[in-house]
Amino acid sequence: MNRKLVTALSFVYVLFMAVLALYYNSAGQSFRFLVAIGGIACGLIPLFLAIFFKLNFNLPLVVSYLVFLFASQYLGSLRGWYGLGWWDTFLHFLSGVLLAFLAIALYERFIHRNADSGISPWFVFLFIWSLAVLGGVLWEMYEFSSDQFFGLTLQGGGNSDTMIDLISDTAGGLVIAIWAGIRSVFKVKGSNG
C-alpha cells in the first residue's frame, strides 16, 4: 500500500511540475521553466527508487519530501515567497523535519526488529536529531563552498544567515526527534508490559 501511495503522490507532483514547465516554456519564462524541470527531476526520485529498486518508504518521509519540494520550488522560487524574508528560515525548519524522518527510516531499516525493545529511547532521540543537524551542517557547507569557489551568493546574510538556518534545521529535527523518542518509550513499555 505504501509503495502505491508513494508512487501516486510523486506522480501527481511530477505531473503538476510538467504542466508548469509547459506553461512557462510557452510563456518564454526560462528561469521558471528550469525550476519546473528541476521539480520534475526531484519528484521522479521517489518514483524511480520505488519502481526500480522496490524500496518501501515510510509515508511521513515521502510526504515531508514532497511538501518541502512544493514549498521550496513552487512557492519559494516560482511564486516568489523567498522574498517574504522568513520563508527561507521556515524551509530550513522543514528540511530539519524531512531529515529527521529520513533518520527514522534509516533507523527502522538498519535496526533489527527484535532489537527495538532493547535500545534506549535516548539513543533513538540522539540518532534522529544528530542526523537532522548533520544534514543542516552539510547544506551550509555546500552553500559556503559554492559562494567561495563559484562566486554565488547562497549565504546572502553571511554568518547571521548561516546561524539562523542551522538553528531552524536543528529545531525541525528536534521536534521529530522528541516525537520519535517518546514513541520509542511507549514501544519499550509495550514490549515489557
Layout of secondary structure:
Blueprint lengths: L1 H25 L3 H23 L6 H20 L8 H24 L10 H30 L7 H35 L1
List the defining traits of the structure above.
193 residues, mainly alpha, 2 domains, 6 helices
Task: Please explain how this structure is put together.
By secondary structure, the protein is an all-alpha fold. The protein has two domains: about 1-80; about 85-193, no CATH class. About 80% of the residues lie in helices and about 0% in strands. It has six helices and no strands. It has helices at about 1-25, 30-50, 60-80, 85-110, 120-150, 160-190. The longest helix has about 35 residues, at about 160-190.
Query: What's the helical proportion of residues?
Result: over 70%
Low-confidence stretches: none
Query: Which structural class should the secondary elements be placed in?
Result: mainly alpha
Order of helices and strands: HHHHHH
Based on CA atoms alone, the radius of gyration comes out at: 19 Å
Taking the sheet with the most strands, its summary is: none
Domain unit count: 2
What is the averaged pLDDT score? 89
- How many helical elements? 6
Strand fraction band? Answer: under 5%
Shape type: globular
Number of strands: 0
First-to-last CA distance = 30 Å
